[in-house]
Structure prediction request, 170 residues.
Amino acid sequence: MKALSLSKPLQAALLLTAALTAIALLKPDALDTPAAAPLQVHAPQDRTSTSPGSGAPWMRLAGEEWRPSDAEQRRAAEAAAAAAAPVVPPAPPMPSPKPTAPDPALTYLGRIDQDGRSYVFLGKGADPQVVEIGSLVDPQWRVEKASATQIELRYLPLNETRMIPVTAAQ
Prediction:
């Protein structure tokens, strides 16, 4: 036996009809009462009764306007004030810390002066290097100065200097 199915547009139309029907049924309507019957103001009425004019909050008389309660008005005013409060823009993001030169992976091994030129012996891992003062150790580091207590190296990408202490030979 073949099951019946509905097309997508028909399903949408039925869903829309059901939703609008539910809204129409839940909407409070004004009650028709004779215009000659004056409204009587007495002590608070029983709100559980559903007869016309009983003061049930979901029923109102024809021509009667709905007014929010004082508490509802106060809540609405507070919500409007909160919505109208000035929007503070978010704080700008913290700037990232300034980059710094890494520590050189070099150790001082010795120094020699020959023919008016000064050379330093630097160890890079297991490879010793002989570098003239003022020349490059590698593409990032240059030997700037050599004194009796330290070797000054310049990190070329950031133009910062780092010192390597000169240790006494043991």
